[in-house]
Amino acid sequence: MVNVDYLCYRSADGTFGWLAKGGVLEVFGMQTGERWAAWYFGSAGPDLKTVISAVCQFGTDCSAACLAVATAQDDFNSFKIYLFDICKSSIVKVVQLPFLVCLNEF
Description:
Layout: E1 7-10, E2 16-21, E3 24-29, E4 35-40, E5 50-58, E6 66-73, E7 79-85, E8 90-97
Antiparallel strand pairs: 1-2, 2-3, 3-4, 5-6, 6-7, 7-8
């Protein structure tokens, strides 16, 4: 199992930040602390197998900001990168990989 307690960081321009634990991602405004977006990665219901292993900003314009989110299953059979649209709070694209991604920046 990937052993990560929390992943947290902020955008390049400092307008928003994110916090990830397990399969949960929360995106929030840095000035107000207001939640902008959230997503639960993994299957429906309590899925303790899916863990977010890395998150980084994809794009620099806050109005069209996306996050690249890497996940792993605890049995190391499934590794994916999701392109997460913050404005829509939805997944734009998913790519399955044959290996684990552990970078915090691209």
